[in-house]
Every structure is written in C-alpha cells, then in structure tokens.
Specification:
Blueprint lengths: L7 E4 L7 E8 L8 E4 L5 E4 L6 E4 L7
Antiparallel strand pairs: 1-2, 1-5, 2-3, 3-4
C-alpha cells in the first residue's frame, strides 16, 4: 500500500459501514504505512491499515 498526504483510506469490513479518513502525514518510507489520519469529526490517530480490508483513494494531482 502506497499513499501520500491528502489521499483517503477507506476501510471496508463485513457488516460495518464504510469508513473514510484523510491521510495528514505519511510516517513510513516511500508512501508506506503507518499513516497519521484524520476523520471527519477531527479525531486523529496513527493507522497501520491492513491489505485485505482497506483501499487508498488517491487525491487528484495538479492537472487532474
């Protein structure tokens, strides 16, 4: 999993509603986890997303 600041991490677990957070800091090397993320309510945590239940939605880049 590779991401950058501004990307979104979407967590999808069976029986649970989809949950989306924004990456505000990449703490791993070359875009890898862990990530500092912020939810819509402003809560911030450090997240180590799993490969089977999360996806990254990349933020648009200049020119997109």
């Amino acid at each position: 999993m590779h991401a950058k600041k501004g990307d979104r991490v979407v967590s999808r677990r069976a029986g649970m509603p989809e949950h989306t957070v924004e990456i505000i800091e990449v703490l791993g090397t070359n875009g890898t986890p862990p990530y500092r993320v912020r939810s819509k309510d402003g809560h911030e945590v450090i997240m180590m997303p799993g490969p089977n239940d999360t996806i990254v939605r990349h933020a648009p880049t200049d020119g997109d």
